[in-house]
Amino acid sequence: MQSLKRGIFWNFGGLYFFYFAVWQLIFTFLPYWLKGPAGMDTTTSGLVFSIMSFGALILQPIFGPIQDRLGLKKGLFYFVICCILFLGPLFQWVFLPLVGANQILGAVVMGAYLSLCLNGGVGVVEAYNERSSRAYSFEYGHARLFGSLAGATASFVGGIMWAKNTGSIFWAMTFCAAVLFVLLTVVKLPDDHMAGEVRDEQGNAAKNEPITREEWLSIFKNRSFWGFCLLIIGSATMYDVFDQQFPNYFASFFSDATAGATFFSRVVSVQILLEAICMLFMPALINKIGAKTGLLIYGGILFVRVLGCAFINTIPMLVFWRLLAALEMPFMLVSVMKYITRVFDKRLSATVYMYGFGTAKQIGLTVFSLFMGNMYTALGFHHAYLLLAALIAVFVIVGSLLMRSDAKTEQIAK
Q: Does the keyword section mention Acyltransferase (predicted)?
């Protein structure tokens, strides 16, 4: 945990905190906003999330190679921050009137813009910070725990804000973007940033030659890449699909929907605080068991949670099942980055992340958000969760069979 003592570590921790505060506010309270003030049903709400994913499907394959060429330059990161800065005014003066005039058009415009901030933009944030962790020699997983702390804080404070004024949630995002702008500006680039130097987990300089077309294409000839994509669809994609409508499912157990939303925000706060504690120890655990094993554990816990929710009919058990997510995310967040930097060329880390994690995840979300939105309407939550659990099992098992192990080597896969 030596990275906790480094000054630059706290700056990147702040970047994670305020970015993922925005992320948590959107994904916790947007379903309520879509159902309440916007007046959408689950199918139209699913269209919003599908468009967010489809937008990222276009953006991430572009952002990945660009960020690899930029190295530690901040241009794309600034772009994402500027998009977030306008969320407050857009939700109040543009999105809500547009949805009132035409729900489908409003869903498309809203989803496309949010993809710049979140589903597409998150790849820029994660790839930049992971590369920085190697350049500045601090542990990525320790800085990433600030994202968990942000999630807990945003859920708790957001629940209070939502109960008093639903529109204040989106203005809080604008405030977070302003802080992000300041934090990123004060980060000083290392002397070798123009060369895009990256470092391995021991702090040693990695290869610095320009990336050739053949090296870039070699990613798509690697079976581990395709196995990684399938496992991500079965785990990270399905995690988000599960979460999209879960707040409404949880609130359905309460006679007062507002009380259910407030209580759920408290549960999420506890979950993410536990998640942050797990993040402290997760890098050491993944170094011991291997990143592939960590990803399989992540998928297994998600399968248990989704399957369990198909049979649970009491609030206390539903709360307990939700808190299991505190174990899931640390396994995923640390394992994804360690698997990429151990099995693939580190110079291509942003490209592999945005294609293998980001793009694969968004393909899955584009397909399954709308599909599961229809299933919730047609089958009800309990039967839809049985179907979702089966999909998780198939994708995770098939993906894991294709992926090579990272436990004994960090050399570039051939």
A: no
